[in-house]
């Protein structure tokens, strides 16, 4: 019995060569760009390759280059965080452009699971690893990844060996306050998290810079550190809003905290945005578009971070990038309906 019955044969270099009337070596050089080929011949080769549906055999390619054309993305909770699926999408698109496969592993922030994930990636001989985090924080790259090309996504490191891509957190805080100040707000609260991580430090720095830029003195009592979830947002809002001289606007560490601020404001009969304006961070659309009124928020560049990290990884693996690069990406303010001028 013929086991290949019904199977579609792979179009190879020899098929392309026969269609064009040149040698397989010429086709190989034309496709790889490794050597100069007559422009007309190269155009005919590329046209025939596309017409015939030619694609390189990854097994043969891997044998020649000692690469597997597989990339790992190892995260803490990225894969189970709705808005961060964009990071995986960006990484996947970049991997496909390099004719490679992306393996995504999530440790759920459990050390044993992370170590198991690293062993899995090493056993698959991945060409490199994107080491990702849910929010911008400084990390220590596990020693188990020694000898593997690593690029950090939404994370940074004091180790200069590692390239990294992170959002501009100072810019996030600055843009939020500029937006609120443009509506006339002068008394602006800030809900943050108690952890001293780049995301919280940067956003608070931007908050303070934005106030200074607007000629507003910082009132330390308007900065409240709680957990970065809805419960934390409710707790912070109760402290900020149950006071005689309450803020007319609140900048929240993230959209989850903003949802808690909405809930606390409604508990005491305040209307958004007429009594208090709100700005979040993340553009977590399960929240930002579901809240009434819809939330003005600052979107993080998750797709761009994932795409850049994988592209940078291939530059390292291919020897095109020798040194590490630390890159910050600007973020985008999405204006919806949770900000209005102060009612007073």
Mean pLDDT figure: 89
Shape: elongated
> Element order, helices and strands?
HHHHEHEHEEEHEHEHEHEHEHEE
User: Which value, in Å, is the CA radius of gyration?
Assistant: 26 Å
Q: Helical element count?
A: 12
The CATH homologous superfamily of the largest domain is termed Response regulator
Q: In percent, how much strand structure appears in the residues?
A: 15-25%
Q: Biggest sheet, open or closed, and with what strands and sense?
A: 6 strands, parallel
CATH topology description of the largest domain: Rossmann fold
Tell me how many strands there are. Answer: 12
CATH architecture of the largest domain: 3-Layer(aba) Sandwich
Estimated structural class: alpha/beta
Helix content: 40-55%
Low-confidence parts, pLDDT < 50 over ≥5 residues? Answer: 1-7
Ends distance: 85 Å
CATH class of the largest domain: Alpha Beta
Write down the domain tally: 3
Question: How do the strands line up in the largest sheet?
Answer: 2-1-3-4-5-11
Short account of what is shown:
41% of the residues lie in helices and 19% in strands. With 344 residues, it is an alpha/beta fold. Strands 2-1-3-4-5-11 form a six-stranded parallel β-sheet, with helices on both faces. It has a six-stranded mixed β-sheet with strand order 7-6-8-9-10-12, with helices on both faces.
